[in-house]
Amino acid sequence: MGRTPGRQDWNPEAYGRFADLRLQPALDLLARVSELPHGRIIDLGCGAGAAGPALATRWPERKLIGVDASPAMLEQAAATGAYRRCDLADIRDWTPTKPPALIFANAVLQWLPDHPALIARLAGALVPGGKLAVQMPMQWGAPSHRFLRDFAAEMFPDRFPAEGWKSPVAPATDYARILAPLGSAAVWTSEYVQRLAPTEGAHPVRRFTESTALRPFAEKLSESELAAFLARYETALAAAYPAEADGTVLFPFRRLFFVLEVS
C-alpha cells in the first residue's frame, strides 16, 4: 500500500469491501506477464495479499515475498499462506536483498512521488531480463476524485490549497517515454465500468473511495469538519453517479498498466 509514515494504518476490512473489483485489474496485469528468468517474485505494496494466491499459483516453485508499509495489511497477507515471507517496509526506502525476477506493483506506486526516478530504481533492482509490472488508478479527473480536491480546497483552504496540485499518475505516453531507455515495455489503459451494490449509510462510490482516495482528506479533518465534508460529497456523488432502477450504481474507473522487461 505504500503508507506514508505518520498516517493512520490502513483498514483491511474497509479496503476489502470491494475486493473482487480491486482484484480484477491485478489479474489483468498478471495475465500480461510472460515467462520470467530465474529469481524470486516481489509483491510490492501487497496490502492484504489479494494478489498473492494468483501469483503463487502462476509460479508455485518461486519464492514469493510480500512487501508493505502497513502492519495490519501485512498480517492479513501472511494469513493467506501465499507468501514465503512478508516484509514491513516503505517502498521509498526499500531495496531487495537479492535481485528479483519480477516486481509486481499493483495499485501502489500512485502514492509515491517522482515516478521517473522510482521506476528507474525498481527496474535497476531486477535480474537481467526481469520484469516490472505496474497498475495504477487514473481516476483523478473523475467526479469521484475531483470532488474531494475541489470541496476540500473550498471548505478548508488552509489545509488543502488548490494551487500546485498535480496528478500523481501521468498520461500513458509519459510512462512510455520513461520506460523506453530501460528495456522493452507495453503500456496501456483500461476503463472498468463497475456496478456497485447499494451500501448502508453512504453512497456506494463514497464507500469505494473512503479506504483510499478519501483517506488523505479525512485524516486532516475534525469529526465535525468531516461530517460537513462528507455531506457535501454525498450530495455531489448522488448527482454524478445516480442509482439505476435496481439500486446499483455504475462507476467507471480508469486504470493505467505497464509491463517492462529490463535490458
Description:
- The protein has 263 residues and is of the alpha/beta class.
- It has a domain at 12-140 and 165-197 and 250-262: Vaccinia Virus protein VP39 (Rossmann fold), CATH 3.40.50.
- 35% of the residues lie in helices and 20% in strands.
- It has 10 helices and 7 strands.
- The protein has helices spanning 12-15, 19-31, 52-58, 71-79, 115-124, 143-155, 172-179, 204-209, 215-218, 223-240, and strands spanning 41-44, 64-68, 85-88, 102-106, 131-137, 183-196, 249-262.
- The protein has a 7-stranded mixed β-sheet with strand order 3-2-1-4-5-7-6, with helices on both faces.
- Helix 6 packs antiparallel against helix 10.
- The longest helix has 18 residues, at 223-240.
- It is globular.
- The two termini are 28 Å apart.
- The relative contact order is 0.16.
- The model is unreliable at 1-7 (pLDDT under 50).
Question: How would you sum up this structure in a few lines?
Answer:
This protein is an alpha/beta fold and 263 residues long.
Q: Treating each run of at least 4 consecutive H or I residues as one helix, how many helices?
A: 10
Shape: globular
Q: Which residues sit in consecutive blocks of at least 5 with pLDDT less than 50? A: 1-7
Rg computed from alpha carbons, rounded to a whole number of angstroms: 19 Å
Report the β-strand fraction as a percent range: 15-25%
Number of strands: 7
Profile the largest sheet. 7 strands, mixed
Percent range for helical residues? 25-40%
Our measurement of the CA-to-CA distance between the termini, rounded to an integer number of angstroms, reads 28 Å
Widest β-sheet, arrangement of strands: 3-2-1-4-5-7-6
